[in-house]
Design a protein that fits this description.
Layout lengths: L1 E2 L2 E4 L3 H10 L5 E5 L15 E2 L8 H11 L6 H9 L1 H11 L15 E2 L9 E2 L5 H15 L3 E5 L1 E10 L7 E10 L4 E6 L3 E3 L20 H9 L3 E2 L4 E8 L12 H4 L3 E3 L19 H15 L4 E4 L5 H7 L1 H9 L9 E10 L2 E3 L11 E3 L4 E2 L12 H19 L22 H17 L6 H24 L4 H22 L23 E2 L1 H4 L1
Parallel strand pairs: 1-10, 2-3, 2-11, 3-7, 11-18, 17-19
Antiparallel strand pairs: 4-6, 5-6, 8-9, 9-10, 12-17, 12-20, 13-16, 14-15, 15-16
Helix pairs in contact: 1-5, 1-11, 2-3, 6-14, 9-10, 12-13, 12-14, 13-14
């Protein structure tokens, strides 16, 4: 058994920034199932929304967030996050992140415009902000003597005991993780565990997310007794590159901020038929508009046209997108980009407080794994990295303040009654089936009948996986499939509970929004 003051599961921006804020005072274990930079944060193109320009205002950023979230966002939480935006940017600059500069700007940095925002307020590093931030923080994490890094280790389950201190009646005391290289489960004891594993985009057939986005933290927290909220709100990014050789490549919102137009193969613009804000409408509106045009016209994709900008501008502002499209034979300065909506962001997650505490004592959730109340029914563009930064600081501050340092004993993993599987193909078949029916039945536009069909199939898959898990040695693929099926069930059950259409959840059976609406909250006791 290993022991640490704090264990962090996940190496995205939420995990790295939490680790750095704790490491001067705690012995920290940072666990990541692949390499440090293999998560979704590293893929983030757009940037970080923060009020840094004197022409902008905190109230405007708050209102933009509430409007995008269909007024389901928690206003107090939203105000808290927005108020700490500039501070978060300053912290990253102190760490050495080189954001794109603009000497004519009052801030000294170039501020981008994105859909749903009233002002240019997106601080960015060209079109590869996530990579710039992650690579900078990764170097600092690797250099810190108090941080032990466990790459190629995947979380299995949390270890908890009965406690009267938490709403769930449980206290987290450690975690089991699978050492992938050595095919061995190890026990780690810690009085503080932070889940920062990102979202669950891989539950869907088409996604902008990397292969690591399998909802691990949400599923692990749910099994440990955490409450979850608003899992029905899966954000589909409107513009994922549509090309047989391009897997999960995102075409940033910032192109539309610079005037890119969505068009049909004929060249006709169509967004004016759906929203007065056209291409700068929130992502849920744009994604549904594209989906509608594709279905109405029998199209595989639509096109994003930014040919009004010259090559020098595009190379300067969008070097990653420009070069990737050129590799595929698409010169975006001369021809439009084929795009299609794809699952992008999990707005719901483990219910967490302003201090990032879940309903299990000693267990925290940060980033896309958490439901903080910020995003409501739809995340405003570039608020995700901001949320990671603000809540990682809040989590670290709370962990240090509570000063829980005593470790409980965690028993070794018992695999004495399992054998090696001789039917690994079952896992790949089940995963493919899950992703296809989630895309078809619980996608951008939903019906009750489709979702009930999906839930029936999830029940069958759950039974198969439970039997498989009980009889065979665990593998990374089995753990990811187990987690995705669990998270998919939470998505469907939350969606079935919402008898209205709001934000990212659009139901043909309930096409209108209710006058008042609340979060959809699930607990284990409700489903037991």
């Amino acid at each position: 058994m290993r022991s640490f003051n704090t264990v962090i599961l996940g190496s995205g921006l939420a995990g790295l920034s939490t680790a750095l804020r704790l490491a001067d005072y705690h012995r920290v274990a940072l666990i990541t199932k692949k390499k440090m930079l293999d998560g979704a944060s590293n893929w983030a193109q757009g940037g970080i929304a923060a009020v840094t320009d004197k022409e902008d205002s905190l109230d405007s950023h708050v209102q933009d967030t509430l409007i995008a979230g269909s007024f389901l966002s928690n206003k107090a939480v939203t105000e808290h996050v927005v108020e700490h935006g500039a501070e978060a940017i300053d912290w990253l600059i102190e760490q050495g992140v080189n954001f794109t500069r603009d000497h004519e700007s009052s801030t000294g940095y170039h501020l981008a415009m994105e859909g749903g925002h009233s002002f240019r307020r997106i601080v960015h590093a060209a079109d590869a902000t996530g990579s710039a931030v992650q690579s900078t923080l990764e170097q600092k994490v690797r250099a810190h003597q108090n941080i032990t890094i466990f790459e190629d280790h995947i979380g299995v389950d949390l270890v908890s005991e009965v406690s009267d201190e938490a709403p769930s009646g449980k206290r987290c005391v450690g975690i089991y993780v699978l050492d992938i290289r050595n095919d061995k489960v190890i026990a780690i004891s810690s009085p503080n565990v932070v889940l920062a594993t990102g979202g669950a985009g891989k539950a869907y057939l088409y996604t902008t997310n990397p292969d690591t986005a399998t909802g691990d933290g949400i599923a692990i927290g749910w099994r440990a007794g955490c409450a979850v909220a608003n899992m029905e709100f899966i954000q589909f990014h409107p513009t994922c590159l549509y090309h047989p050789s391009a897997k999960s490549f995102l075409i940033s919102e910032a192109l539309r901020g610079e005037g890119a137009k969505l068009i049909l193969p004929s060249g006709e613009e169509f967004m004016s038929r759906y929203d007065v804000r056209k291409e700068l409408a929130p992502r849920d509106v744009v994604a549904r508009s594209i989906d509608s045009e594709m279905k109405k016209n029998g199209l595989d994709c639509v096109y994003l046209d930014i040919t009004h900008k010259n090559e020098a501008f595009l190379k300067g502002h969008f070097p990653t997108i420009f070069s990737r499209c050129m590799e595929l034979g698409i010169d975006i300065s001369k021809e439009p980009i084929p795009v299609v909506p794809a699952a992008h962001y999990t707005c719901g997650g483990l219910v967490s407080s302003i201090n990032a505490e879940t309903t299990v004592h000693g267990l925290y959730a940060v980033g896309e794994t958490a439901h903080t109340g910020l995003h409501g029914a739809n995340r405003l563009a570039s608020n995700s990295l901001l949320e990671c930064l603000v809540f990682s600081k809040n989590a670290a501050t709370h962990i240090l303040k509570t000063n829980r340092l005593e470790n409980e004993s965690v028993a070794d993993w018992d695999e004495s009654r399992v054998t090696d599987s001789d039917e690994q193909v079952i896992i790949s078949h089940n995963w493919d089936e899950l992703r296809r029916f989630m895309w078809n039945y619980v996608g951008i536009v939903r019906t009750t009948k489709r979702m009930q069909r999906a839930l029936h199939r999830i029940d069958l898959l759950t039974a198969e996986i439970r039997e498989y898990y009980s009889n065979f040695r665990i593998t990374p693929d089995l753990l990811e499939l187990r987690n995705l099926v669990s998270v998919s069930e939470l998505i469907v059950r939350c969606a079935l509970q919402r008898k209205e259409s709001r934000g990212l959840h659009f139901s043909k059976d309930y096409p209108n929004a209710d006058a008042e609406s609340n979060d959809t909250i699930l607990t284990n006791t409700q489903l037991s």
